[in-house]
Amino acid sequence: MGDAPRPDLPSTPTDHFDGRRFFYPGRAETPCRQRDLWRWLITRRANLVAWTPAPRQPRVPVAERVAGLRVTWIGHATALIQIAGVNVLTDPVFADTVSPLPGIGPKRAHPPGIAYGDLPPIDVVLISHAHYDHLEAATIRALASDHAPCFVAGLGLHVWLEKHGAARVTTLDWWQAGHVGALTITATPAKHWSRRGVFDRNRVLWCGYVIACGGQHVYFAGDTGYDAALFAAIATRFPDLGCALLPIGAYEPRVFMAAQHMNPAEAVQAFEALAPASAIAIHFGTFRLTDESREAPARDLAAALSTTQATRFIVPVFGAPIDLDRRAPD
């Protein structure tokens, strides 16, 4: 994912591509410069509270297909979205650790809410960006071999996905829509960045997605910092969202994380702007990536929500299906 030619990059500069690297409009450089990253890692508080393992939940049988809309949080940004008979998997990571080196790095605090072997047939895989906690090579290879789904990703990831076994790949620019069977998938901007190797900073695009199928619209935010204009633009284009999957974790310290990850209070602001029928929290409580405790995201979200909002912004349980449309129960 460095400077090797890739056929799915824009041929000319755009408002978020300078001809070589992508960028978030209005921001000239990545919010996570290497020297800042190392300074943070070296100076992190030595007395960080250890993450306690998350409570285990009993395994829930997984429906092969769902006629309405069901979302099951597997962990971190990995979720199973079952919509109008189609199975969509977001940012699939089933490894115990996330880093460039297998077995090394942040360790999973809870096993996947759905074990890999218990997944139903997967039709579509959405990849929001190339960071290791969202894109895991071993899981991609396994899904490509076992399920042969269509992989949908941001521009620049086509060749990487093919090298890891994907036979069907669609890469999208921001606001570009693609069609996979009955689904219409639109890539949306996100206030984030991308890096996987030493020399590939922002060489592939990061994005969220809106899935449209069977009269339902579901927004998967991926990773994003807060920007009022960003969520207003998504709400304008998609005023009838049924569900929004919004990240609430990996947000401390704010001086370092605010430009790339929302905190729970900002997730509530995004929720207000998007005005979905319901929201589901993601990107928390699975891998210790930043300084907050495992319990802090859900606690801080509860503090930021009004009583009325709290009935619509759901903090999911690992592996517990959430039915959001009962018009056509299976």
From TrEMBL:
Membrane-crossing residue ranges in chain numbering:
none
Metallo-beta-lactamase domain: residues covered: 87-284
Classification via InterPro entries: Metallo-B-lactamas, RibonucZ/Hydroxyglut_hydro
- Any one annotated GO CC term: cytoplasm
Q: What is this protein called?
A: Beta-lactamase
Organism of provenance? Salinisphaera japonica YTM-1
